[in-house]
Structures are given as structure tokens and as C-alpha cells.
Design brief:
Elements (H helix, E strand, L loop, with lengths): L9 E11 L2 E5 L13 E8 L3 H10 L16 H12 E4 L13 H5 L3 H14 L3
Antiparallel strand pairs: 1-2, 1-3, 3-4
Length: 131
């Protein structure tokens, strides 16, 4: 049992990308790939495991509002949460350009991710961590 999170603790999320009707789709759950699709491309994203400080920063940036009265739901913007998780915790990926060269991890390249890919990667990370 490890109670302290090291800045070097990592976890990988593999996503599966495919087209359905000419539209790119992605999932982090291999069993969710439709049987009818042809080519499936895998990509692996590496995240830093969050510590308490990371957790607090992520919640603040996505307008997380806990219900302190015990009544009603906690509110937050899911899209913002996914975006902040990518920007705060993502440390590496195996994405390549058209020439097969590894794409550097940068804000510009994160911004260029297809929305389906970004959502799938963030969802896969959120399933593996606790904020």
C-alpha cells in the first residue's frame, strides 16, 4: 500500500480508434469496438498519477462545486474536467505524424486531437485514478 504519490508514478491508457460511417470514433474499452468495423488503430497515452495538490488544482479549474448541505448533486463541467485532466496529467503519448515520427506532446498538439480521441483518453484516465 502506497500512501504518498511520487511525481514519477505513471499509468497508461490505451484507446482504440475506428471509423463508423466515415466518422472517427474512439473508445478506451476494447470490448466496445463494433464488430463491423475494419481497421482499428491503437494509441497509448501516459499520465502522471495525481497527488492531492493535483486533485485540488483540477477541481478548481473545472468549476467543481460540492454540495456541502448534503442535499442535491455535486456540479461540475465534464468537458472542462476532461480537458484539465489532459493538460495537467498527460506526460507522454505514442502518436506519430504522417512520416512516422513521434509527435511531441505540446499544448498545440493536445488542442489538435480529434474530440472523440480526447474524450476517450480522458475517460480512460478518469477510470483509473481517484481525484
Amino acid at each position: 500500500m502506497k500512501l504518498i504519490v511520487s511525481r514519477t508514478d505513471r499509468l497508461d491508457v490505451t484507446i482504440y480508434c475506428f471509423e463508423v460511417g466515415g466518422i472517427l470514433s474512439a473508445t478506451h474499452i476494447e470490448a466496445d469496438i463494433p464488430k463491423s468495423v475494419g481497421d482499428v488503430e491503437k494509441a497509448t497515452f501516459t499520465f502522471r498519477k495525481p497527488n492531492h495538490s493535483d486533485s485540488q488544482a483540477i477541481f478548481k479549474q473545472c468549476n467543481f462545486k460540492p454540495n456541502v448541505t448534503g442535499e442535491g448533486d455535486v456540479t461540475f463541467n465534464v468537458s472542462e474536467l476532461q480537458d484539465v485532466v489532459l493538460r495537467v496529467l498527460l506526460v507522454d503519448w505514442d502518436l506519430t505524424d504522417d512520416d512516422g515520427k513521434k509527435l511531441p506532446l505540446s499544448a498545440g498538439n493536445v488542442n489538435a486531437l480529434d474530440p472523440a480521441v480526447a474524450r476517450s483518453v480522458a475517460a480512460g484516465c478518469l477510470e483509473k485514478i481517484r481525484l
